[in-house]
Amino acid sequence: MQNHLFVHTKEKPHRCEICDRRFSVKSYLQRHLLTHSTGGKKHVCEECGKSFFHKGGLRMHLLTHSNEKPHICEICSKGFSLKGNLKKHILTHTLEYAFECEICGKGFAQKITLEKHLLTHSKEKAEVCEICGQGFDKLNNLQKHLMSHTKTHVCKICDKAFSQRCGLKYHLETHKKEKFYVCKICTEVFSVKSHLEKHLLTHEAE
Q1: Is the separation of the CB atoms in 71 and 81 below 8 Å?
Q2: Nearest residue to 179 via CA among 187, 191, 169, 170
Q3: Quick one: pLDDT at residue 112?
Q4: Element (H, E) at 166
Q5: In terms of DSSP bridges, do strands 161-162 and 153-154 run parallel, antiparallel, or are they unpaired?
Q6: What is the pTM of this model?
Q7: 108: which residues sit within 8 A by CB, 6+ positions away?
Q8: Cα 171 vs. chain centroid, distance in angstroms?
Q9: Fewer Cβ close by (within 10 Å): the C or N end of the chain?
Q10: What transmembrane ranges does the database entry give (predicted)?
């Protein structure tokens, strides 16, 4: 609680002994100290100590510390600090995603799904994806997520990503016990067998 109060008072009692940079929360200092051992990340947030490989990543991250919300929804005029959150919010204007998260703008089809999602905001998400702005509470979760930006073959059932199509096909075998129907030609996934059969006709026309 005391650490949290320092954030609001702008007091920064935690000092880095290497470069004299100061932070309001001890965990911010601990995260900053990692930048002295991993030389690749040169762009450091003065507020919380988080570091980035690219200046653009830092620039996007800085928006989370300010009230600036440059990304505006053209439908309801609600503002967002990150473009990715605006995109998620726009989905809530369709009937398919009627329940919106007030924190990140993500939309859900059912209220109970939204309630489960809200639990993910109960923990501080210290790790933020530099590419899309999505937050994670653990570094290893962020690292797994980053693979989805570099690996183009993504499983449509569980979102696991692969660099090669054969890797995805092998992975899909693990879902065979589940009620899913997978096209062996293009790996498209269907929950109803008749939908797969209809889809297969599109390959015959090719």
Answers
A1: yes
A2: 191
A3: 77
A4: helix 165-172
A5: antiparallel
A6: 0.28
A7: 97, 98, 99, 100, 101, 114, 117
A8: 23
A9: N
A10: none
Query: What pLDDT digit, counting tens, does each position of 92-147 carry?
Result: 776 566 777 877 777 777 777 787 777 777 655 567 776 676 777 677 777 777 76
Q: Residue 179 and residue 190: Cα distance in Å, rounded?
A: 9
- Report the residue count for the chain: 206
Beta strands 127-128 and 135-136, pairing class: antiparallel
Task: Render 108-160 in DSSP notation, one character per residue.
Answer: ESSHHHHHHHHGGGSS---EE-TTT--EESSHHHHHHHHHHHH--EE-TTT--
d(C-alpha 69, C-alpha 25), whole Å: 25
Say which residue, 25 or 37, is predicted with more confidence: 25
DSSP states along 29-88: HHHHHGGGT-TT--EE-TTT--EESSHHHHHHHHGGGSS---EE-TTT--EESSHHHHHH
Helix or strand or coil: residue 16? coil
